[in-house]
Amino acid sequence: MSVSRRRTLGALIGAALSAAAIGGIATPAQAAPAMLRGFTDLDTIQRNPAERSLALEHLKHARATSLRIMWLWSEVERAKPADRTQARDPDAPIYDFSKLDALLRDLAAAGVRPLLEIHEAPAWWEGPKRPRVSHRVPAGTWRPNPTAYADFMTAVARRYSGSHPDPLRPGETLPRVRHWQLWNEPNLYNFLNPQWVRDGRRWRRVSPRLYKRLLNAGYEAVKSVARDNVVVSAGTAPFAEPWPGGPRMPAAAFWRALLCVDGREHPRARDCRKDPAKFDILAHHPYPIGPPGRKAINPDDVVIPDFPKLQKPLRVALAAGNVHPKRPKRIWATELSWDSRPPDPKGIPAVLQARYLAGTLYVLWRQGVRAMFWWNLRDDVRGHGWEYTLQSGVYLRGKTVAEDRPKPSLQAMRFPFVAYRRWENFRGHGRALLWGMAPRPGPVEIQRRHGERWRTIRRVRAGQDHVFKLRLAAGRGVRLRAVQDGEISVDAKVF
Amino acid sequence: MRRLALLTVAGLLAFPASGAAQTITNTPPGNSGLRQYVEVVPTGGGDTPSQAVQKGKAHLPSALRGAGRDGQRLADIAVQSSPAPARQALGQGRRSGKRAAGEGTDAKRRRSPARNPDRSTESDATRKALGTALTGSDPGGAGGLGVPLLIPMLVAATIVGLLTWGARRRTPEG
Questions:
Q1: Binary contact (B29, A386; C-beta < 8 A)
Q2: CA A417 from chain center: how many Å?
Q3: In whole angstroms, what is the distance from residue B33 CA to residue B24 CA?
Q4: β-bridge pairing A196-199 and B39-40
Q5: B32 contacts in A (CB within 8 Å)?
C-alpha cells in the first residue's frame, strides 16, 4: 500500500472513530457537524440551579450540544473513606453527590450531553511533604494519590452509569455520563504540584509523571464500569515560563514527557510500552494571544494553530506503543476564549470577538481538532476586577439570564463563516478562501455586500458534516456572509 | 497607504530600541490577563529567569573578593571584561557594599543601573521572540540565522518591496 493510500485509509479510520466518539455527545437525530461545540459555565449553569434551565436554552440556541462540567473531588468527598470498598461505593455516606445529581438531571432533561471533568483532591489524599497551602501551591494539588483517584472515579462512574437508582426519584435512574475528563491543566501550578523538582543542579520534570499515574488510574476505573465510556485527557494550559523550574510547564514539553518522546523537531520515542499513557481523546486549552491564526512565540507553548506540536509526538508515541489503546486519537480544545469589549475595557471589540470565534473553529477544523468548548456562555460577574474574571461569554450578562443580551459571537457559534486571503494575494485583488459550518447539510448561498444591500454571488452545498468550503475572487475588506434557509451567518470581512 | 507603509518601516527600525523597555509578559487585548494564561517571552539568558540573571551578576564580585587575592583579581577582570551596562552595575555594586542601604536618592541611583543587565536580557528576549515568530525556529540556536542579521535583512527586504510596489503603482497598467 502506498504512503498516500495508507494516509487516506488512516484518515478515513480516524474520521470514523471521531464520528463514533463525537456521536455519543452530539445530537443523534441528524448528521453530526464536523465540530462539536460546547461551553463551560461555572457561574450560572453549574452553580445557580434557579437560572439553569434558561441558561441551558441559551446554550442550545448557540447550537452547542455539550456542557463541560468542572467538579471538585474535594467537594464531593466529605470524609476519608474507611477502606477501598467504601471509596468505590457510589452511595457511601462520605460522598455528597446531591448538587452534581441535580445538574446532571437538568442537563438530561434539556438534552445537553455532559463532559464531566473532576480534579482537586481532598487534603487526606495529597502526598507527603506538602508545603503550606498558598496561592503558589493551592489545596488539592500536591501529589494527589492515584489509587484514591481511581477509587473515587469508580464511584462516580458507577453512579452515572445510567443504571444507578435516582435517590430522589424512586423507579428512575440517574443520567448516564459517557465522556470523562480526568483532571484539569496538569501543567499548571494551579492544579498539580510540584511541576519541577531540583535534582542536584538540574531541574527534573515531575508533573507529567504525576499526571500519567492519575490518568492511567482514572482510565482503568472509568473503563471498568463501562467499556464504551470515553476518556478525555486533562486539557493542558497553553503557556508557560520558557525555563525549567517555573510554576508552569510548556504544554508541548509536558506532552512529550508524558508520551515518552524526546526531541521537539524530530521526535523519537523511548520505550514505555510497559507503562503506556491511557486515554481516548487528547485535550488542550489553546487560549489565544492575538488572532486565531497567530502562533505562540515560545516553541513549546501551544495556541490555536499550534496543534501539530501535540499531534506530532502523539503519532510517534502511538507508533511506538507508548499510548493505549493503540489507535488514532482525537484532539479536542476544551477551553478557550477572548474577552470582549464591552464589558471588559481591555477586551477586543465584540464584533472582532465574533470573527475570531468563527476563525477559531476554522483553524481548529483545518488541523483535525473536532471539538471546541468555549469558556463561558455568559460573562462572569466583574468581581474583584476585569483582570481577574473572564468577560468572554457569547451573552452579555444581565441581572438575570432572562436579561442577558446576545453578543455577535453568538451568531459566530451558531453559524460560523470566515473568509481569508492567501499570502500571494497581498495586493488584495486575489482569491479568498471561504469556510463555514452550516446549520445543516444542504444548499448555502454566499452573499456579498454592495453598499447597504446583500447580493447572492454563489451557491454551494454543505456536506454531511455541515461544512462548506470554496474559493472566490474577493479582495481585502470585502464583506461576505452565508445564508441557509433564511438563517444568516456571522458576517465575514476578507482579511 | 504609502504613509502607512513608511510608518511600518519606521516601526520596524525602531523595534529593537522600544523592545528594550518592554516587559516579558504578553497580554494583548482580549487575553484574559489571568496569570496562568499569559504568554511569557523567553529571556536572553536562555533557560534562566531574568531575576536570577540579575541576582547572580550582582553577587559575583563580592563573592569573588571574599576568595583571597586571586579572587580579587578575577573580580576585577570580570568587571573590566563585562559589557558596559553590566560593568556599571558591578561597579556600583562594589561601592554600594561600603555604604549603608536606603540612602534616598543615592539608593535609587544604585538600583537603576542594576536593572540594566536585566533590561538587556529583555531586549534580547524580544528580538529572540520576534525571530522565533518569524522563522519558526530559535534564532539563537544552532543553525539559525540569528536575529541581529535577520532584522536588517527583513527591513531591507521590506524597503525594496515597498519601493517596487510604489514603482509599479506609478506605472500605468496595460
A1: no
A2: 21
A3: 14
A4: unpaired
A5: 287, 337, 339, 390, 392
What b/e string do you get for B11-42 counting C-beta neighbours within 10 Å, with b at 16 or more? ebeebbeebbeeebebbebbbbbebbbbbbbb
Q: Which of B29, B37, B138 sits opposite A237 (nearest CB)?
A: B37
Chain B positions in Cβ-Cβ contact with residue A136 (cut-off 8 Å): none
Smallest Cβ distance to A298: which of B33, B42, B136? B42
Nearest to A296 among B27, B33, B39 (CB): B39
Q: Chain A residues with CB-CB distance to B under 8 A? A: 185, 188, 190, 237-246, 248, 287-290, 295-299, 301, 337-341, 346-348, 352-353, 356, 386-388, 390, 392
Cis peptide bond prior to A328, omega within 30° of 0: no
Nearest residue of A to residue B162 by CA position? A427
What CA–CA distance (Å, rounded) separates A8 from A11?
5
A185 contact residues in B (CB cutoff 8 A): 36
Record the pTM: 0.75
User: Would you write out chain A's pLDDT as a tens digit for each of its 495 residues?
Assistant: 444 455 555 545 544 444 444 445 544 456 899 999 999 999 999 999 999 999 999 999 999 999 999 999 999 999 999 999 999 999 999 999 999 999 999 999 999 999 999 999 999 999 999 999 999 999 999 999 999 999 999 999 999 999 999 999 999 999 999 999 999 999 999 999 999 999 999 999 999 999 999 999 999 999 999 999 999 999 999 999 989 999 999 999 999 999 999 999 999 999 999 999 999 999 999 998 889 999 999 999 999 999 999 999 999 999 999 999 999 999 999 999 999 999 999 899 999 999 999 999 999 999 999 999 999 999 998 887 887 888 999 999 999 999 999 999 999 999 999 998 865 445 545 688 999 999 999 999 999 999 999 999 999 999 999 999 999 888 888 999 999 999 999 999 887
CB contact under 8 A, A246 and B46: no
**DSSP letter assigned to residue A274:** T
